[in-house]
Amino acid sequence: MEALQKKHRQEQKELQSRITQKKKSATKKTRKGVNDECEHLERQLKDKHDLELSELQEGPDLTADFPNPNQSSDEPDLEKSPGDSIGSISLSGALVTSTEQTKRPNRQKARLARRAAEKEAAVTQAAEEAAELPNRRDQEREAMRGAYLLRDLKEKEIRPDGHCLYAAMADQLTDANIDLTPKVDIGKIRHDNQSTEAGYKVIRQVAASYISRHPDDFAPFLEQPLEEYITSIRDTADWGGHLELMALAQAYKVNINVIQGDGKVEKIECNKQTSDKQLWLAYYRHSFGLGEHYNSLRRAS
């Protein structure tokens, strides 16, 4: 038992090392898939350990007959019934052991079959429970519509891709007559025009440059090296989130209001207390096929 437990601890240690490396190398785009894979590996190892412990604890079926200490080894056991075993005495008088025994059931196959049946029952139960749950997409859409009506807002659809946060911010700034050139010095920003289509590229540059100029405000919250994170903002289609909105609020000196899927509002304010510029975004979790998504919100009247 001690040797098996030592082996299990070593396998768990090695798995945790693998999981740590996988999570460190994950990006925002691949993080969900990596987390799912790590959970699967942990469940797989746990099932393996449970099976090995169960087999060790049950052990072999020690039901073999032991010789009678009061009986001479030269004498046959006459008290055994003929059905127990088939034995005979050789010419030298030695006892010949039984060659036919009742076939024992395969315990490992029985355990595996029982476990498979339990898993199938659990999957069936989970499917039944899921069928009774409300549709999260419908719930989210209904909550958002109520929040829009309450604040006299209407939705401007943004293409659901990795640039949606930046495109929504470009639309908000343009609608509020705010130049895409940031209000603080973050270096040179390249842009030819202020159309929403090209605007998301400018917004990506602004977010990346602001974070680069203020590393102490953002590095503690990152799961990857700062320079690698900045490159992913500027040069890839990785999704943006709360950190990027914080950077953009400071760069443009605006307050950003984000209506969540439950209808609540998350406020991201700049340090300039006198700012009266209010931008509005909608943040969805369940309504779009790619997952999380941002839309732009404008005044309905």
- Shape category: elongated
How would you name the oligomeric state of the polypeptide chains in this document? single chain
H and E string: HHHHEHHHHEEEE
Could you give the distance between the termini?
74 Å
Structure summarized in a few sentences:
With 301 residues, the chain is of the alpha+beta class. Helices cover 48% and strands 9% of the residues. Helix 1 packs antiparallel against helix 2, helix 6 runs antiparallel to helix 7 and helix 6 packs across helix 8.
Descriptive overview:
This protein is an alpha+beta fold and 301 residues long. The chain is built from eight helices and five strands. The protein has helices at residues 2-25, 31-58, 107-132, 136-151, 164-175, 196-213, 226-235, 242-252, and strands spanning 153-156, 255-259, 265-268, 278-284, 293-299. Strand 2 and strand 3 (265-268) form a beta hairpin. The longest helix has 28 residues, at 31-58. Mean pLDDT is 80; it is low at 61-100.
